[in-house]
Write a structure and sequence with these properties.
Elements (H helix, E strand, L loop, with lengths): L1 H40 L21 H10 L3 H8 L1 H10 L11 H24 L2 H25 L6 H8 L5 H29 L7 H15 L7 H5 L1 H14 L7 H25 L8 H26 L5 H11 L10 H21 L5 H19 L2 H23 L5 E5 L2 E7 L4 E6 L2 E7 L17 H8 L7 E4 L16 E5 L2 H10 L2 H4 L4 E5 L2 H5 L7 E6 L14 H10 E10 L8 H11 L2 E7 L8 E7 L2 H10 L3 E2 L25 H9 L6
Parallel strand pairs: 5-6, 5-8, 6-7, 8-9
Antiparallel strand pairs: 1-2, 2-3, 3-4, 9-11, 10-11, 10-12
C-alpha cells in the first residue's frame, strides 16, 4: 500500500510538471494562466466536493492497480491540478513586474515549507483530534480558498503573454550532462530518505511516526537551499566523501545492535541531513540561468524522484534480500560529485582501499561488543579511506559498486549469524536461522514471528508467544469457550496449529503468501497439527466476509508487527464484523505484545462502547514461554467469570467519562498510546566510555 501510494503520487506530480512545462513553452505565462484556472476547477467534478464514484469489480485487478484506480478516481484529479502549482507560480512570478521576480526559486522553498508544516501537524493535530470526514470537510474549504486566491492573483498580477515562449527561443539549449545531473540528484535525495526510513522501521526500531523524521529532513534541506538566501555549510560539500563513508558504515553498524537504538536513529538521520543538504545544494547551484528553462529543471528533479521511488519501493525489493537501496543512494550521490582537478598519488588511493577493506571486512570479525577504542579506530579508518577515495572519482565510484556487490558477503559477518533463508518482499525482510539453543526462528524486521525446536522429537511443542503457559495457549487448552472452530488472523510459523483437534479445526487468515510458504517449507507446526488447519490468503477483513455467520467460537487477532498496527483490524466497526462471525457466546482475543504501543486503553474503550466484557493477561518469560500480552473481549457473562476466576485474566476498567474518541474506520491515532520508555532504557544502559 505504502509503495503503491508513493509511486502514484510521484507519478502524478511528474505528470503535472510535464503538463505545465509543455504548455508554458508553447503558450507563455499569459495564455497558460487561463488554462491553469480552468484546471483548478476540474476537480470540482470529482474529489473533493462531490460524491462522484466509479463502481468496478476491484477483485479483478492486481492490488497495485486496484490502489492506482481508487486514487485516480478520487484524489487523482485534484492532486494533478495541485502538482502544477509550483511550476506555474514560479513562472508567473518570473514573468511579473514584482520585485521578487528575479528569484522565483524562493517559492519552491515556501512550497516545501508548507509540506513540512503539514507533515508535522497532521499526525500531532489533525489525525489526533479529527475524523477523516472532518478532515475532508476542512480540506474542501481550504481548496476553495486556494482557488479564490488564484483568481485574485490573476486579476492583480499581470504578465507578458509570450515571455516564456520568446525566452525559450532565445535561450541556449541545456547540455545533456546537466540534465542527467539534475535527474541523478533528484533521484539520490528520494532514494536516501526512503532507504533511511526502511532501515529505521525494518532493522532498528519499529516506533510509530519515526518515518516523519527522514521525510522532514528531506523537505527541510529543500527549504534551506532554495530560499532567497540559500544556506548550506561549506564543510558539508568539502567533506562529502567521509560523510558518504560514515553513511555506508552505519548501514552495517545498524545490524550490529550494540549501540542504543535512539543513538543509531540520531546518527542515521543526522547523516541523512548532510546528504540531503549536499544534493539540494548541488541542485540550486546548478540551476539554469534562463528562466524559461526553470520548468525543465523541475521536471528532471521530479523525474529523478519518480525513478528513485520506483527503484526503492518496487524494483530493489524484488532483486535483493537486503536494504541495498541505501548504498545505491550513496552511489547516486557519488556519481554527481564534481571531478577534482588535483592529481592524487596512486599510493593514497591504494591505502584508502586497504583501510576501507579493513573497516568493512576485518573489523566486524574481531569486534563483537562495543568498546570506545575500537569504535574510534573504525571511524578514523572510514574517514581517511573515504576522504582518499573521494579525491579521485575513478576510484570512489568503483569502490562503492564493489561494496554494494559484496554486501551479501559482509552482512552475515556484521550480524554474526548464519541464515537458513533471507527473503525480502513488499512487506519487509524475513530471516530464518537456528540459534545456539537448537531453536529455529522466523524474524520479520525486528519482530519475532515464531520459533520451533529443531529436534524432531520436540517439534510439536508450541513455543514462544503461543506456549501452553501463554495466555492464548492456556485459553485454548482450558477450552472455556468449548470451541468447535477457531479463527486466527496472522499465520507466523503456524504455532497455534498444535492446539487444533479433530473436533476443532483452525482457520488461518494470512495476508502475505510468502509467510505461508515459509511456514510450510521451514517449520513443522502446520504439517504436524493434530486437527485440520486451513490457510486462507488475503486481507482478513475481506476474507472473513466469506465465513458463515456464527462460524467461530474464538477469533484470535494476531496481525500486529512492530509499528504496523492494522487499525482496520482493531476498531469499533470491525468488532461488529467479528461479532457477526462469532458464536453468541464466543470471544475475540487480541495479541497486543508491543514494545512501543499500549493497546489496552484502545480495546477497553471499544469493548465498553460495544457492551463487551474485556480482560487482559500478561505472562512473562518462563521456560519455553516468551512474555506476551493478550486482551480478550466477550459478551458472555458466565465465560467471562471463568476467565477471571480460573485462568487469572484481569478485567480492564476505564472511566466512562474518560473514554474520549473511540477508534473506528473513520478515526484512529497512535499518538496517545506510544510508549517511548524502551528507547530511554536502552540509552540509559549504554556506557559510551567502555574501553
Amino acid at each position: 500500500m505504502w509503495g503503491a501510494c508513493i509511486v502514484f503520487f510521484q507519478a502524478v506530480l511528474l505528470g503535472g510538471y510535464i503538463f505545465a512545462h509543455s504548455f508554458l513553452r508553447r503558450l507563455g505565462e499569459g495564455l497558460y494562466l487561463k488554462v491553469h484556472l480552468c484546471l483548478l476547477f476540474i476537480p470540482f467534478l470529482f474529489f473533493p466536493l462531490s460524491n462522484f464514484h466509479l463502481s468496478f469489480n476491484h477483485a479483478s485487478l492486481p492490488l497495485v492497480m486496484d490502489i492506482f484506480w481508487r486514487l485516480a478516481v478520487t484524489i487523482g484529479p485534484v492532486f494533478f491540478a495541485l502538482s502544477t502549482m509550483s511550476l506555474v507560480t514560479q513562472s508567473w512570478l518570473a514573468a511579473s513586474q514584482l520585485k521578487q521576480r528575479h528569484h522565483p526559486y524562493g517559492l519552491y522553498a515556501v512550497s516545501n515549507l508548507g509540506s513540512f508544516a503539514a507533515l508535522l501537524t497532521y499526525p500531532f493535530v489533525f489525525e489526533q483530534y479529527l475524523t477523516n470526514t472532518e478532515q475532508l470537510q476542512i480540506w474542501r474549504v481550504l481548496y476553495i480558498v486556494l482557488v479564490l486566491g488564484n483568481l485574485l492573483a490573476w486579476v492583480m498580477i499581470k504578465v507578458k503573454s509570450q515571455r516564456h515562449v520568446e525566452e525559450n527561443a532565445a535561450a541556449a539549449p541545456v547540455e545533456m550532462w546537466q540534465i542527467l545531473n539534475w535527474l541523478c540528484l533528484g533521484a539520490a535525495g528520494v532514494v536516501m530518505f526512503l532507504s533511511v526510513t526502511n532501515i529505521i522501521t525494518y532493522e532498528v526500531a519499529p516506533v510509530p511516526l519515526l518515518w516523519v523524521i527522514p521525510l522532514g529532513i528531506y523537505l527541510m534541506a529543500f527549504i534551506l537551499n532554495f530560499k532567497k538566501n540559500p544556506w548550506c555549510p561549506s564543510w558539508i560539500v568539502r567533506y562529502i566523501g567521509p560523510i558518504i563513508g560514515f553513511q555506508a558504515m552505519m548501514y552495517f553498524m545498524s545490524q550490529k545492535h550494540f549501540l542504543p537504538v535512539i543513538l543509531v536513529i540520531a546518527i542515521l538521520c543526522g547523516l541523512l541531513f548532510f546528504i540531503c543538504m549536499y544534493t539540494q545544494h548541488q541542485l540550486i547551484r546548478t540551476k539554469p540561468s534562463s528562466g524559461s528553462q526553470m520548468t525543465l529543471f523541475y521536471v528532471m528533479i521530479s523525474l529523478g524522484g519518480f525513478l528513485g521511488g520506483i527503484l526503492t519501493s518496487w524494483i530493489i525489493p524484488l532483486l535483493s534480500n537486503t536494504l541495498i537501496e541505501y548504498l545505491v543512494g550513496l552511489l547516486l550521490v557519488a556519481l554527481v560529485i564534481p571531478k577534482s582537478s588535483a592529481k592524487i598519488a596512486a599510493w593514497i588511493s591504494g591505502v584508502s582501499v586497504v583501510l576501507a577493506a579493513a573497516a568493512f571486512y576485518i573489523w566486524p570479525q574481531f569486534v563483537k561488543d562495543y568498546h570506545l577504542w575500537s569504535f574510534a579506530l573504525l571511524w578514523i579508518a572510514v574517514w581517511f579511506s573515504f576522504a582518499g577515495l573521494a579525491a579521485d572519482k575513478k576510484f570512489f565510484v568503483p569502490a562503492l559498486i564493489v561494496l554494494i556487490l559484496a554486501t551479501p558477503l559482509l552482512e552475515p559477518i556484521w550480524q554474526n549469524a548464519h541464515f537458513i533463508l533471507k527473503k525480502r518482499n513488499y512487506y519487509g525482510i524475513y530471516e530464518i536461522y537456528n540459534n545456539q539453543s537448537g531453536i529455529r526462528v522466523l524474524v520479520h524486521g525486528t519482530t519475532l514471528h515464531g520459533i520451533e525446536f529443531v529436534r524432531e522429537d520436540r517439534r510439536s511443542w508450541p513455543l514462544g508467544y503461543y506456549s501452553p503457559s501463554s495466555p492464548i495457549g492456556s485459553l485454548l487448552i482450558s477450552d472455556i469457550f468449548q470451541a468447535h472452530r477457531v479463527g486466527v488472523v496472522g499465520l507466523g510459523t503456524g504455532t497455534l496449529s498444535m492446539y487444533s483437534k479433530p473436533s476443532c479445526p483452525i482457520d488461518y487468515y494470512e495476508l502475505d503468501a510468502d509467510v505461508y510458504k515459509l511456514a510450510s517449507d521451514y517449520f513443522w507446526y502446520l504439517s504436524s497439527a493434530p486437527g485440520q488447519v486451513n490457510v486462507i490468503l488475503g486481507d482478513a477483513r475481506l476474507q472473513l466476509k466469506n465465513a458463515a455467520d456464527g462460524a467461530y467460537d474464538l477469533l484470535a487477532i494476531d496481525a500486529f508487527s512492530g509499528d504496523s498496527i492494522p487499525t482496520h483490524l482493531v476498531n469499533k466497526d470491525v468488532l461488529q464484523e467479528y461479532r457477526q462471525k462469532l458464536n453468541p457466546r464466543g470471544g475475540v482475543v487480541f495479541h497486543i505484545t508491543n514494545r512501543y504501543l499500549n493497546l489496552e486503553p484502545v480495546l477497553a474503550k471499544i469493548a465498553i462502547d460495544s457492551g463487551a466484557h474485556v480482560a487482559v493477561k500478561d505472562v512473562g518469560d518462563e521456560g519455553i514461554n516468551m512474555r506476551s500480552i493478550w486482551c480478550i473481549l466477550t459478551w458472555d457473562d458466565d465465560r467471562f467469570i471463568k476467565l477471571i476466576t480460573q485462568e487469572n485474566w484481569v478485567p480492564l476498567e476505564v472511566d466512562p467519562g474518560e473514554l474520549g474518541r473511540i477508534w473506528t474506520d473513520d478515526f484512529s491515532t497512535v499518538l496517545p498510546i506510544i510508549n517511548m520508555g524502551e528507547l530511554a532504557i536502552s540509552l540509559k544502559a549504554f556506557k559510551p566510555l567502555t574501553w
